[in-house]
Design goal:
Distance between the termini: 45 Å
Protein name: Transketolase C-terminal domain-containing protein
Largest sheet: 7 strands, mixed
Shape: globular
Number of strands: 14
Organism: Parachitinimonas caeni
Helix content: 25-40%
Mean pLDDT: 95
Oligomer: single chain
Low-confidence stretches: none
Length: 310
């Protein structure tokens, strides 16, 4: 059965709410699309349909958190991060209120929704906020980890989820963690997050078939960042791949590590504001399909004296 990761988020919160009366869910009139419907059906008395009023919704959630509740706010990432930014900045970040923001339909692949629904620089916005924890899950286990971790912490959090549907119970290799190696570390390493980890997995498989062994580090938790410097210290080339602008997201976090490795940053170009179209066509046009990613990495690796293959 195909299902969005946001649907899984709604189901997890609904299950956890049976044992935790502090959990409430607020939604901005998108419950049947952003996953909140699963909570609403099981806990109607703890579900607030706030309407198309994201600013008010975040303010209400902040008040609920101050009163000891643990609210989760659902909406499309574009509406949540941009329309309600001032309330997130003041009421959640500056006040350090433990509100969980769940932004679905994040990234550059919006199908027919178009650029008004695109959130291609939401990570840059949310990573810049003090106290804000930031997650970009890639599978079911990542979603559960992000939610349970956020509920245990006393800080606000943002959980970024894509529009794409996955087979139910899709799992990447290994045990869910803030970051984990999906392919063993090598001198050439890909670092990816969220939906882009699936592109990276496919690209690494293509490269393996061409005789290139590529390490792959998946980062579900972007803030606070984990031991990336230690994990990547031995790399000669670090390739970051993300469903986000090349500016201000995962690539920028890696650049701040000031590692000696060469760098290749792959993501949506800074001038990209979102477009309607089939996912495969958009990915190929902007160099983010597995084949285009593999070509970019191979071209970089094959450059004379760029990478030490020993």
């Amino acid at each position: 059965m195909l299902m969005k990761l946001a649907d899984h988020a709604g189901k997890i919160l609904a299950e956890l709410a049976y044992a935790d009366p502090r959990i409430f869910v607020l939604d901005g009139d998108l419950a049947d699309s952003d996953g909140a419907i699963h909570f609403a059906q099981r806990h109607p008395q703890r579900f607030l349909m706030a309407g198309i009023a994201e600013q008010n919704m975040v303010s209400v959630a902040a008040g609920m958190a101050e009163a000891g509740m643990r609210p989760a706010v659902f909406s499309f990432a574009a509406f949540l991060c941009y329309r309600a930014y001032d309330q997130i900045r003041i009421c959640l970040s500056q006040a350090n209120q433990p509100v969980m923001l769940i932004g679905s339909h994040a990234g550059g692949l919006l199908g027919r929704n178009g650029k008004t629904h695109a959130a291609v620089n939401d990570l840059a916005v949310m990573l810049s906020l003090p106290e804000m924890q930031v997650w970009a899950p890639a599978d079911w286990a990542d979603v559960e980890l992000a939610i349970t971790h956020s509920l245990l912490d006393s800080a606000p959090s943002y959980i970024r989820l894509p529009r794409r549907q996955f087979e139910e119970a899709t799992h990447l290799p290994g045990i869910a963690a803030g970051s984990r190696w999906l392919r063993p570390r090598q001198r050439v390493c890909i670092v990816s997050t969220g939906l882009a980890t699936h592109w990276a997995m496919a690209a690494a498989e293509l490269l393996a078939g061409r005789g290139l062994s590529i390490g792959l580090l998946h980062c579900a938790q972007l803030k606070p960042a984990l031991q990336w410097q230690e994990e990547l210290a031995s790399a000669d080339l670090i390739v970051s791949i993300e469903d986000h602008s090349r500016f201000g997201g995962l690539g920028a976090l890696i650049d701040r590590l000031h590692l000696p490795a060469a760098r290749l940053t792959l993501g949506w170009p800074e001038e990209f504001g979102g477009k309607s179209g089939p996912d495969d066509e958009l990915l190929d046009y902007y160099g983010l399909s597995p084949e285009r990613i593999a070509q970019a990495i191979e071209a970089r690796v094959r450059q004379p004296a760029t990478i030490n293959h020993s």
